[in-house]
């Protein structure tokens, strides 16, 4: 039977910059097995968009996957009714109306306080000093874990992100992840006097079991901290390195939302989503065997030359509707509305408005392929 062609990678080079390898995969072997990752990769946008919806073949239920083993079985690792029930239970915390009417004002207040403290300094490292605390402050209120600081939220998120991408099986990475999940479980146990629209509160009100409440809180923190953090800093960097694009926003020809959506397409903060092959199937002339592992490479699909013109170019005027930045199908990101409001309606406009003369003050190294973003971003203003 035809098996997926094998594509070898250098893991360190792939972590530093996956885009050259992903472009070759799309051109030469769009469905390929990468031994270093122990998975079959889907790299073309339309294949990912179509196949992600076939949950009977590409199952999110992965009891032996790193996320389930380290963080508990959250709604992202469930299919069908089990997934739908938990998604419905969490919806009151994440609905567009809740975000607009309840959370947005709290996002603005936290962001203003952070900027008030930064403004007199004349410079900062944006990831650490702005993007991280803004994202963490938002998650504190949304989850209900207000006893944790933004820095504690960020540290727990990063430890979990590292843990679920630990395909090399490094013991110290797993240990940090397990310590972080234990901290979050304890915080959920201690959570009292909750905002009724917080994630812990709405799940308890819906009658979800304690292990599901905890697993879904950890899911929200693992994805809801790093993605906004990296997208806030990354979009700011993209605009500052493309001043013509920044002028389009300042002049009203484009919006902050346009800039964020294009950045999330161009450098996808969440670059892939894993699936378990639930039954034998064939896609694109490649036979897939049960219990194999598939990675849907969102970061590759978002640079698919068949869908996006000059996809390697940052262009906030392009149509980003085909983007896979928030996934597709039944597992489309539950926190998309909160992310869009926090980044495009609060953090980015307030950053550029309240720090006049904002400019780069050094290099901004990027890293990652499953999760990608700037490691640091030195800025100055005034």
Polypeptide structure, described:
There is one protein chain. Helix content is 53%, strand content 10%. By secondary structure, it is of the alpha+beta class. It has a five-stranded mixed beta sheet with strand order 1-2-8-5-3. A three-stranded antiparallel beta sheet has the order 4-12-9. Helix 6 (96-118) runs parallel beside helix 15 and helix 10 runs antiparallel to helix 11. GO terms for molecular function: heme binding; iron ion binding; monooxygenase activity; oxidoreductase activity, acting on paired donors, with incorporation or reduction of molecular oxygen. Keywords: Heme, Iron, Metal-binding, Monooxygenase, Oxidoreductase. Belongs to the cytochrome P450 family.
What is the strand and helix layout of this fold?
Elements: H1 11-16, H2 19-28, E1 31-34, E2 39-42, H3 45-51, E3 58-59, H4 66-71, H5 80-94, H6 96-118, E4 123-125, H7 126-143, H8 150-164, H9 171-190, H10 199-205, H11 210-241, H12 243-250, H13 256-266, E5 273-277, E6 281-283, E7 286-288, E8 293-296, H14 298-301, H15 336-354, E9 359-360, E10 366-367, E11 373-374, E12 378-380
Parallel strand pairs: 2-8
Antiparallel strand pairs: 1-2, 3-5, 4-12, 5-8, 6-7, 9-12, 10-11
Helix pairs in contact: 5-10, 6-7, 6-15, 7-8, 7-11, 8-9, 8-11, 9-11, 10-11, 11-13, 11-15, 13-15
Order of helices and strands: HHEEHEHHHEHHHHHHHEEEEHHEEEE
- Binned, the helix content reads 40-55%
- Which sequence of strands runs across the widest sheet? 1-2-8-5-3
Sheet-strand content, in percent, reads 5-15%
Spans where pLDDT lies below 50 across 5 or more residues = none
> Number of helical runs?
15
CATH class bucket? Mainly Alpha
Number of domains: 1
Shape: globular
Secondary structural class: alpha+beta
